[in-house]
Amino acid sequence: MTLQGKTAVVTGSNSGIGLGIARALAGAGAHVVLNSFTDRDEDHALAADMAKEFGTEVRYIAADMSKGDDCRALIAKAGACDILVNNAGIQHVAPIDEFPVDKWNAIIAINLTSAFHTTAVALPMMRKAGWGRVVNIASAHGLTASPFKSAYIAAKHGVVGLSKTTALETAGQGITCNAICPGYVLTPLVEAQIPDQMKTHNMGREEVIKKVMLERQPSREFATVEQLGGTTVFLCSDAAAQITGTTISVDGGWTAM
């Protein structure tokens, strides 16, 4: 599944899921634009190291996904966008009646509205090229719900809906749009939570993972960033040219329940 000559922009990609997807796309030959809201030497060094590792062009462009102008400028600065992966996201947990308004606004802006802005600028580029792939990273929480995550769940349901509309508006134009819905993924942030959960529940590592953290994931196994990267590369390939406007769950069976 070669993506030679394609340019991929991945939002929120200097760590975790976004970085895993960016690495998979670079491994398939795509030129990659990494992104986050920081603009540190290590961000640019990460891009340089990836370029050397995969033998392709990798750049880092700072943009704050909570700001519409930044989102649009990211795509403009990339210069080309054959593949757009809307991955940036944040989370906050609280009951609805106690949910801080600033947290609600930030989650909706970063998890949902940013995808609208980037897609709006990327689609004309894709139409001009006669080819394009939009992959939105939603969540199992884009298909189902849990208490105390109202903003995140509202945003991720919105991402699924936006994906369907984007697919309908681009049907027959060589462009596809789909949403990947991961369950729990083993990222550095999740890994850092395991010791605290072990102390809280007085359990060993494997027991706390299976009985507490992955209680709703029937496989009792984390998805990996490499698996999400592979799924993204597949959706960008010719094999997936007629897959559009749908969701692909990578959740160990969570949404089958």
From TrEMBL:
It comes from the Bacteria. It holds the Pfam family adh_short_C2. Transmembrane segments: none annotated. InterPro entries: 3-OHbutyrate_DH, NAD(P)-bd_dom_sf, SDR, SDR_fam. GO terms for molecular function: 3-hydroxybutyrate dehydrogenase activity. Belongs to the short-chain dehydrogenases/reductases (SDR) family. This is 3-hydroxybutyrate dehydrogenase. It comes from Seohaeicola zhoushanensis.
